[in-house]
């Protein structure tokens, strides 16, 4: 990986790349990204929200066009946001299945990626009876477990930072953990000059 690490919004140096948040459905990625925007000065970008604003409700896209059509829209949206300098200082939340698309996964190998890890016990109250997430139908709990198990290795492989979101930890604690990691990496970059941030993150 060769990601350029983003500085905070008030830093003198112009930031060059967003921080990408990955993790399973209902992990709280968008909530965390919004928290980081509000309390730490990052921009907030959510891939699903961009898709909805442009193409309509995701469940309807699935119903009318199928998963492949949606994944293609999603991959194009992620690539566009990663290229856009207006989002260089963003915490960028992507959908749970986004990293499983080969083109998206390849892009994320070159970005700074934070993985929000959760478990079934944490997510279950958030998904019980859910009818708005097409990938969780018709049995949200069983489908969530199946999807998580099939995607977990991908999340772990891409992660430069792993955040513990299990046990309903307050978002303020998770956000503080993320900011601490980002601050540490900024310090490493400043001290090391051309240090590859993603290699440092994995050390």
From TrEMBL:
For this protein, the Enzyme Commission number is 2.7.1.71
Which pathway does the protein contribute to? Answer: Metabolic intermediate biosynthesis; chorismate biosynthesis; chorismate from D-erythrose 4-phosphate and phosphoenolpyruvate: step 5/7
The catalysed reaction is: shikimate + ATP = 3-phosphoshikimate + ADP + H(+)
Q: Does the keyword Membrane apply?
A: no
Q: Name one GO cellular component term.
A: cytosol
Cofactor descriptive note: Binds 1 Mg(2+) ion per subunit.
Which is a Pfam family this sequence falls into? Answer: SKI
Function per UniProt? Catalyzes the specific phosphorylation of the 3-hydroxyl group of shikimic acid using ATP as a cosubstrate.
Q: Which PANTHER family match?
A: SHIKIMATE KINASE, SHIKIMATE KINASE 1, CHLOROPLASTIC
- Positions binding ATP in this chain are 26-31, 133, 169
Q: What is the lineage of its organism?
A: Bacteria, Bacillati, Actinomycetota, Actinomycetes, Micrococcales
**Where along the chain is Mg(2+) bound?**
30
Cofactor (UniProt)? Mg(2+)
Organism (species): Kocuria rosea subsp. polaris
List UniProt keywords, sorted A-Z.
Amino-acid biosynthesis, Aromatic amino acid biosynthesis, ATP-binding, Cytoplasm, Kinase, Magnesium, Metal-binding, Nucleotide-binding, Transferase
Location in or out of the cell: Cytoplasm
Q: Which GO terms describe its molecular function?
A: ATP binding; magnesium ion binding; shikimate kinase activity
Q: Name one GO biological process term.
A: aromatic amino acid family biosynthetic process
Q: Which residues bind substrate?
A: 48, 71, 96, 151
The entry's family comment says: Belongs to the shikimate kinase family.
Protein name (record): Shikimate kinase
Q: How does it assemble?
A: Monomer.
